Amino acid sequence: MQKEIVIYKNIAEGLVEKLKSHNYKVTQFSTVNDSNRDEFHKSLLNASGIVGTHVKVNEDLLKYAPSLKAVSTVSVGYDDIDVDYMSSKGIAVMHTPNVLNDSVADLIMSLVLTTSRKIVFTMDYMRDHKWNGPLPLNCFGQEVHHKKIGIVGMGRIGEVVAKRCKLGFDMEVSYYSRTQHKSVEDLYGAKHLDLDTLLKESDFVIVILPSTPQTKHMFSHKQFEMMKKSAIFINAGRGPVVDEEALIEALKSNKIAGAGLDVYEKEPLDKKSQLLTLENVVVVPHIGSCTSETRNLMAECAVDNVINALNGNIEKNCVNYNELKNK
After folding, report:
1. Mean pLDDT score of the chain, rounded to an integer?
2. Gap between the Cα atoms of 314 and 209, Å rounded
3. CATH numeric code, 101-283
4. What is the pLDDT of residues 74-96, one digit of tens each?
5. If you write DSSP's letter for every residue of 185-198 in order, what string do you get?
6. I need a labelling partner for 84 at 20 to 30 A (CA). Which of 9, 95, 137, 314 fits?
7. Is 267 part of the annotated catalytic residue set?
8. Would you state the pLDDT for residue 1?
9. Which CATH number applies to 4-98+292-324: 2.40.30.10, 3.40.50.720, 2.40.100.10, 3.10.20.310?
10. What is the pLDDT, as a whole number, of residue 182?
11. 286: annotated active-site residue
12. From edge to edge, which strands make up the β-sheet containing 47-52?
């Protein structure tokens, strides 16, 4: 019997054809919303695999997908997937690490430079026709090169950021991670520090952590109090890691110098959020992997992942590999 795959995201036609060439019947939705949710649910009846993002994949959804064997998210994060429940049902959860490492690292460095050199503030200064002579001191930024950078979460992206900081800007790199990463220490002279020390010493604090019960509000009042008043805080991991009210208070009271944010506690960001009005904050709408090249690579990886998973090959890119390998 021909296996079925349901896609709930726009991906290149060539990737749809790739699935068909492997003898899968493919049903595709560009997105799932209230207008097509019932149709989407009906399409899951005989689905062996699903590919997409921004749909909650949990016990409720599986009521419509009794034959499901693999969930392939077009992302590194898998916040929308109940991994424990999938594991209990023997369903592989696949994701797309590595293909976006460079893009996210580029975005992080963009936030470092944009916040430190006040690019947005001074652009607005010009657009408001205020540049009529020598610049006032509030237009002055701070240096990036040779400064101390502290990376919280030394995973794949963290390693690429460390490389850019050390080799591109001659920065002194330190990191906080549950495990020591000798390769980063050997290649870039990085120091493995406890979190409190890193916060006290760093000129830039870059957070690249996943959202888990353990990391929720890992950064709150206490952590911002520890940082230098001249420090800049960057979050490009997951929004719930940061207590936004504590961050806003730290920015308004100048406990830290500024922040660059790509992720938020609730997305999209509330239009009434004070983060949108503070002059010492640069905010972008979760664009870490938003380049055409990277998004195409992610979609290709997700398609390859679902093919591999349905063929029983889950050694690569499987979130719950350890839970499934002994089943």
Report:
1. 97
2. 24
3. 3.40.50.720
4. 999 999 999 999 999 999 999 99
5. HHHH--EE--HHHH
6. 9
7. yes
8. 79
9. 3.40.50.720
10. 97
11. yes
12. 25-28, 4-8, 47-52, 70-73, 92-94
